[in-house]
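Researcher: Go.
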Amino acid sequence: MSQPVQWGIIGSGAIAKAFTTALTQTDAGELVAVGSRAKASAKKFLDENNAGRGTAHGSYEDLLADGNVQAVYISTPHPFHAAWAIRAIEAGKAVLCEKPLAVHHAHAMAMINEAAERRVFFMEAFMYRCHPQTIKLVELIRSDAIGEVHLVQASFGFQAGFNPDSRVFNNDLAGGGILDVGCYPVSFARLVAGAVDGKRFADPVDGTGSAVFAPTGVDARAVGTLRFANGVLAEVATSVTTNLENKVRIFGDKGHIEVPNPWTHDRTSGGAFELHVRRKGAEPETVMVTTDRTAYAYEIEVVARALAAGELQAEAPAMDWADSLGNIQTLDRWRRAVGLVYEQEKPERLTTPAHGRPLKRSSNAPMKHASIDGVKQPVSRLIMGCDNQMTHTHAAAMFDAYFERGGNTFDTAYLYGGGKQERLLGWWLKARGVRDQAVVIGKGAHTPYCTPQGITDQLNETLDRLGVDHLDIYMMHRDNLEVPVGEFIDVLNEHHKAGRIGVFGGSNWSIERFEQANAYAREQGKQPMTVLSNNFSLARMVDPVWVGCIAASDPESRAWHENTQTPNLAWSSQARGFFTGRADVPAEEQSDKDLVRCWYSDDNMQRRERAIELAKKYGVLPINIAAAYVLCQPFPSFALFGPRALEEMRTSLPALDVELSPDELAWLNLETADVPV
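Model: Structure:
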């Protein structure tokens, strides 16, 4: 083992004491500082648990500023995990954060994204995952010890006297069993289900649950069922009002395993742990695992090995980032099933981003912008598609991150989510107070409501949903060839004159109809259409993604855009995942049939291979080359992108720094054979 990791602790409760004890059982780390809200409390903790050694800090900020601290152990109640983990990562400290990682997936995603962006080690502290007993159990599952695994039963519950102000019952502290200790059975079931397939973990494809609530609105006791794609089922149970068995049983077609002490509770020493294996036709077997230190000490050693190796994530079976995200998503699913929403998750309480500070654009934000005539604000080159945010917490995490990285342009539509997406965007704009700094694109009049009256009806409802008095850019979502273009221009001008819309144009409009509309506008002395939003991508759209879709990737359309300098807001700019590893799967094995239908072709596969080759030259991902192809056109070209997770946003942004030459653009599009120098 190399030099011991220098630890600082944020939070000084019982778990912090157990962690400090564990530091004395291994040479992999030592405690050098404690942060508390009062310096006296930090000093008392050091006196009682570390023989007075180390620096006592009277604030968490002071601890993070301590140059002697290499790694931070966060042991506060979970509602405070996100803010302090992110701030620790910003300070360049490695972070071990107690379970559950956060109250909900959105905050966990923000924490992990920050670690990935800044390349800082980060790990969720499920100490039992680092224990030799867990490692041995995984070996048994993978060695077919009980055959094909069918069912996991796991419980963790205790009886606490009801106190509305205590951590386990306090709604403001996200109390209740599911998050406090139900996270253990869930993580164990996911571990076993993954081990069945030789993987680190598996995420359930379905889940249900029931709960009884305490007077404070948190779950007093709850049960859940999980179903995994490989056929494994799991029954999980938790409680803060009832002592449960706190065991795990794993049933297979050749026997079962019982784990009497899965959570390795002893916080002061090691011990002997038993795995009871009962196989059909064989005598019961007890597999012994003997340790000389606590699970926390093994956890400390896992972190130390990762830091010594320069790794950002932990070794198996400790939880890596994807495992932690899957676990909190499963806990979210369980809470949805029982109807548990904490007060702090309600829209009116979501007042700041995950880091807990007011929303603010970063001084070194990576986003780039360009002007569109008639739009007051510069427009982000990568435009945030608002079509897949399903909750206020998720929308806030995505929009906050986009804005703080310099993004200011949001694309939504009347039909997205039956209006939910517009309501979420409108809520966020108001909650963050950034309407005047944002460019809002709205789309309406989709088939079969593509009529002048449809424009008016849907626009009024869109403005109401968003809670704004105008859209900066308005796009007709489709064209209707049965309606004379003049009728559309007339109604669009009415709304433009009334101040309800700024510039306007058409999405999935042909160039011919666009020119006809503008010829009419010129004749009548009216405002013309000034922007299009058609599909534009390095990959040719083989078959329309949806009925009525129009692409502008062909040479004639590109030449027209270059000649007229008409801006295009390109949707499916990265061909909906075609330039990621998803398209490595042959057509006959591909589960995403739309990906095959719309993008699989010999010429597109060639373009994809060239994007992969050019990505190596620029040190980026192939999707970045695909996006850069859109952004580097000789006309105003903007890329709509719809990240569903912060990872997708983070990995899309490097496209902004790729400047493709005309020769590279032509080569990517198969117009030349020679690789550009």
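Model: The chain has three domains: 5-125, 129-293+309-342, 369-668.
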